Amino acid sequence: MAVRYDDRNALSRPLLRPIVRSDSCVIVCVITLLVLTTHSVFAQTPPVFNTVFPASGQNGTTVDVTVTGSNLERVTTLRCSVLGVRCELLEPNRFRLTIPPNAQPGLYDLWAVGDNGVSAPRTFAVGNRVEHSEVEPNDSQREATIVPLDSVVNGQLNKGGDVDQFRIEAKKGQRLIIEGWAERIDSPLRLVLELFDSTGRRVAVNRGYFGSDPLLDFRVPVDGTYVVAVHDLISTGGVECYYRLDIDTGPRVAFSVPSVIERGKTSRVQLYGWNLNRDETSAALETEINENSASGVRSQLSAGYESIEVEIPAALAVATWPLPVQLQPSQAILAGAAFCYHFPRSHAPIVIGLADVPVSIDRGDNSASELAQAITVPCDLSGQLAEGAECDWYAIEARRGEVFFIEAFGQRIGSPVDLQISIHDGRILDALADAQTLQPLAVLAQFADETRNLGGAFPTNHLDPAGRWVSPEDGRFLIAVQNLSGGLRSDLRRLYRLRLEREEPDFQVVAIPLQGGPGGLNLQRGGRAVLELLAVRRRGWGGSIRVSAKDLPSGVECADVWLGPGVDRTLMVVSADQNAEGQCGALKLEASAEVGLESLHRAVHGGTVVRSRPANGWGRIVSEIPLAVVGASPLKITADGHGTVEHQLYGTLQARHSPGGVVDLAVQIERREPLQQASVKLIGVGLPELIPNESAIIPAGQTTGYLSFLLPTTLPVGRYSLAIRAETTVPTADAKTETIFGYSNSVTIDVQPAAFHVEVDPFSVKQARRGETIQIAYSAKRLNGFIGKMHTELAAPGCVTDVAGLRGRGETFVGQTDAGSLQIVINDDAALGPQPFLRLFTVGVIEDEPSYHGSSFFSLEILP
């Protein structure tokens, strides 16, 4: 008997209602399983979802799908981002999806969910054409599967060198758009499409149009039978090598001009594509076909786009989420600043950007510096570089010292361009024109691509330049826009956006799996799961960003975290108590920042690593962040960075943090089972790049310890978050041990300006024997107008002066004194070996109140 589940059901236990469904997004968060990983009896090994086949379905129908991967035995349903989809479990790994008739065509997310957790998503396409599945054998033209026009075929290249072939009947004058989907539906295939006529002659071929996914534009010259061949560029094959093939005579939009419109305003755009108005173009097509019927193989797409002007009403020009298209990590900017336009009867939407500043359009006659098009700032300009060597010129008026932020969009809007932006002095051009001479203009500035990849396997880098420019003088300046990869052919798809404005800071957040591969966010009771957040800072923003969780279910906690000034990444930790209910819902996150007197708030969206690739990585944005609570954690680590210490002169001191100081994290280990008494290794995670990492070991059988970090003197003031990763072993059922990992809660510290910097003499004693007395030379230099006294003592994590096995004699600086020496006696019972996190601890005093702390680590090894 089949078991029926609602599309939002995740587990057989009580479920968490969906939490996230936001309409705005400039923040992106890609989630991963960083929670305790183990094969012990306590762990729930989460499902790994590799493929779904078929990977698409027609709206208003049901489709039976098969999933493959590992740990799928306990998967009970598929969670889908299409509203209203129902999922029915037919048998293990087979499900029936019922797609509502009003589901818009596009690409959506599908997750495998069971009582062992939630997987990473796979893309599932919804269309409005009849869907078929490939039937073998179809490796030759003689065996080619017969398929009707205006339909979709779901296929697989099952073995290396496999070629799937499909026979169609077409009429003279028809314009066939044959489109292959692989990369856009998470398949590793590099598809090649070929079209053969009834004589076996190849009449069209394509290896990539939408990224690496191919598209054939074929105008049928004569009635007859044609064969479509599908294969992989490097002859790969296997169960993961699936594809979707559209054979279409209906409308298909490729792009719009402009590519961006003003938010909330009625606009007119020109759509470019194929079969957009078949009644009006059929006669022209037939004439062209008759004139070119003897042409040979077409290895490139026809430049003959059809176009139609449409009006976008103001009500449609608003940001929507999710967008039913695949967005790469670098395209996160489109989340919250774009919407999808569905042309009537088309099976695929296009994305149109939204601007909060006036939109200008490239007028087309500005291909020389003396013809530069005047524009005003701020503006979001939509342009086109159809010719290979084309260069568009724009002119702005600027005042001396005026600051501009210039950002180009090409790759990030799906355009096949590699843009270069340069600024030239238009005053020189005016002078040359007066002298009736033409000379090359000197380049005042040129902006670089974003080559930094913050995400590794979730690549955030792109080829769109951006930068800050300060006008050197009053006058007229020119901006040149070029495509460095133009080639010799014309291509109307070469669109760009050029955004010019004053510095108005903004930001995004991107997250990648800590382990570098696909995974879901699975949280064990009594344990923690972790998101790694990456900050993509825009338009000069370098301040702190705060990320918060909202609407958490009972039993689940998630403390706010901070990406401090200039910090690109940190960790966000989600925790569950021992009584949290098993459930699967969506985690809602929000990021905020204080920019001057304005508070910016951005919704945080999810993302995933699609597949583990050794080279450039492969990731995409997803529609929501599912969170599953499953199983029980064998280990829980709690960290506290706000403890107190007892000082012999100043009593109880609350931890204070400043550049040049030390952060002590007190660590508490909770083991679920008494037999779990192995030592625990600790190391910092999510640290700002400026803070050196440290490690420590909690000995076997102990439950407490410390991990300390030096805050460098160059660390900007602000709030920072960090956490600890723990590694230990647990016994298994077969009397062996396995290694497991766990994460602490996030600890946020508030770094305040320093009043002084303490520094130990680098030539101080590094080794000493029991019973010896040593001197540690040091300096304490006052800063920021501090003139109070400073008292220095020997210290270790959690204690001052009374350090185990050591005795220090404190010292006070008054007046202008800034250098001294601290005497340390090594006791006969001092622990042998290196002394972890030993430091000089200085208290700055104002009117007898201990107001400032500073520290400096020093190395000391005790010998017998």
Would you mind describing this structure in some detail?
It is a single chain. Mean pLDDT is 89; it is low at 1-42, 280-302 and 432-438. The chain is an all-beta fold and 864 residues long. The longest helix is centred in the first third of the chain and has 14 residues, at 278-291. The protein is built from 2 helices and 71 strands. Among the domains are: 3-18 and 44-127, Immunoglobulin-like; 135-249, Jelly Rolls, CATH 2.60.120; 634-753, Immunoglobulin-like, CATH 2.60.40; 756-863, Immunoglobulins (Immunoglobulin-like, Sandwich), CATH 2.60.40.
Briefly say what this structure is.
The N terminus is likely disordered. The protein is built from two helices and 71 strands.
CATH structural architecture of the domain at 634-753: Sandwich
| The level-1 CATH class of the domain at 634-753 | Mainly Beta
Strand composition percent: over 45%
What structural class do helix, strand and pairing data support? mainly beta
Estimate the global geometry from the Cα principal axes. globular
CATH topology description of the domain at 634-753: Immunoglobulin-like
- Taking the alpha carbons of the first and last residues, their distance comes to 75 Å
